[in-house]
Amino acid sequence: MMKTNTVKISSGLEIGKDFVVMAGPCSIESTDQFQETADFIKSKGAQILRGGMFKLRTDPESFQGLGQEAYSIAKEIKSSTNLPFISEVTDPRQISDFHDIVDVFQVGSRNMHNYALLKELGGAGKPVLLKRGFAGLIKEWLLSAEYVVKSGNEKVILCERGIRTFETATRNTFDINAIAFAKKHSPFPVIADPSHGTGATDLVVPVALAAAVAGADGLMVEVHPNPEQALSDGYQALDFSQFEELMTRLPTVLQAIDKALAPS
Fold first, then answer.
1. Residues 6+ apart with CB under 8 A from 30
2. Per-residue pLDDT at 151
3. Is 262 domain-assigned?
4. What's the pLDDT score for residue 55?
5. pTM, whole model, 2 decimals?
């Protein structure tokens, strides 16, 4: 197995060293919603706060995030919780605005092949989490990471989030073996996203635990105080009790494979 490089973020946390959990809502909807979620996920041991400010949606009528209105909310909650923050950048023109807000730039599935964006992030100087495209080959995913590296930024984190197959029982087919393959054939830490990978709340916890056993360096999960009222992807978000269940069971699984949860 290839040695995994660690990626250090501004808080001092090293992704690829101890196991990390990135958690938060699909979209930032309001100050109260984001504050409540951030406080809870921190209290249960998550190390990184996630929240979408701009959302690429298949249906143009769907909620596409608060956009610039979310900037001040993200800054406020990040400061109050002292948690590092990750959010999806959807356009090269957003990079300068994001730079003082995020600790990690997230590239979503639809932008894995957006080489102009990847090149710009190569010069941004901050870690980049690169999600696998929903129809992307593993080889293409790894080559997309090289666009960031060759543009000057070696701080790349891969994220397996499921791929589109003939199966319709779940939103995507979560590719467990892609995690093991990427760990063996690349130097990048690998994060698993079982929320998008399954698209079903009741599958997130078991698939998250399976991803940990398969060698993932961490998880990215969607958490919302009231998933039924979420403006985006509520059907795959954990409520607070479900997230607590995940964080209760995770240390036991990690101990069995000689890993530990990173300190929060």
1. 73
2. 96
3. no
4. 79
5. 0.95
